[in-house]
Design a protein that fits this description.
- This protein is an alpha+beta fold.
- It is built from two helices and five strands; from the N terminus they run E-E-H-E-E-E-H.
- Strands 2-1-5-4-3 form a five-stranded antiparallel sheet, with helices on one face.
Length: about 80
């Protein structure tokens, strides 16, 4: 299940979408953006029953939070 997706440049979130109200996903994404190396290689982090996958293309970082039952191939089918 897709929960939250964002686009960022550096540590600045340019756009995002969440299926839930609240700012928890935005808070987590800000922490990840501050630490993650901006690379085309996909990086996946797990938190409880959720996964966060991020990668960067031409200075834009793409990130997706999703439930553990969804495969990375489905989440990033557009890549």
């Amino acid at each position: 299940m897709l929960i939250y997706a964002f686009l960022a440049k550096g540590i600045n979130i340019l756009g995002d979408y969440s299926v839930h109200d609240g700012d928890m996903p935005e808070t987590i994404s800000a922490k990840i953006l501050a630490k993650v190396e901006q690379t085309r290689n996909k990086k996946t982090f797990s938190i409880r029953d959720y996964n966060i996958t991020v990668f960067t293309v031409k200075e834009i970082t793409y990130g997706v939070f999703y439930g553990g039952s969804v495969g990375k191939e489905i989440v990033f089918e557009f890549d």
